[in-house]
Specification:
This protein is mainly alpha-helical. Helices cover 58% and strands 9% of the residues. 13% of the residues are buried.
């Protein structure tokens, strides 16, 4: 049975509209991305340097001086204490004067500490005692205490 011309025309028009919607959605995604970048640049230029005024997503490497994370971890582990990576992250956040209730910042610093702690472990400056609930438990070796 042959199709009615009206149905064929409507299907063709539907295809055009679907293609237009896809194009508009791509343009909308690009506009949202551009807006996010512009907003981030505005935050950078308006920054006061106060840790409480920092946005949640920042360049974490600029928050610490060279080897400062390791020094803070050594302070926390002094006296033979055994602390998890998460506990060390909380100590570093508090020692730097950042917002201790900011979970995003806490997680970001904890993730950075993982690399730092593993490097110190390879050098013999730190010892992983065991794992607890998915977190490594760290301790200074007897020679470092």
């Amino acid at each position: 049975m042959p199709e009615i011309r009206t149905v064929t025309t409507l299907r063709s028009k539907r295809g055009e509209i679907v293609a237009s919607i896809r194009l508009y959605e791509r343009q909308l995604e690009q506009a949202r991305s551009d807006l996010a970048h512009i907003t981030a640049v505005i935050r950078v230029f308006e920054a006061t340097g106060d840790p409480k005024d920092m946005p949640k997503y920042i360049d974490m490497h600029r928050l610490f001086k060279r080897a400062e994370k390791w020094q803070l971890c050594k302070e926390a582990l002094a006296g033979g204490k055994e602390l998890s990576t998460k506990e060390l992250g909380a100590y570093v956040v508090k020692a730097k004067g950042f917002d201790v209730n900011d979970a995003i910042l806490h997680n970001a610093i904890t993730l950075q500490l993982i690399h730092c702690l593993r490097q110190q472990s390879r050098r013999g400056n730190l010892k992983m005692v065991r794992k607890r609930h998915g977190f490594c438990i760290w301790k200074l070796p007897a020679s470092a205490i």
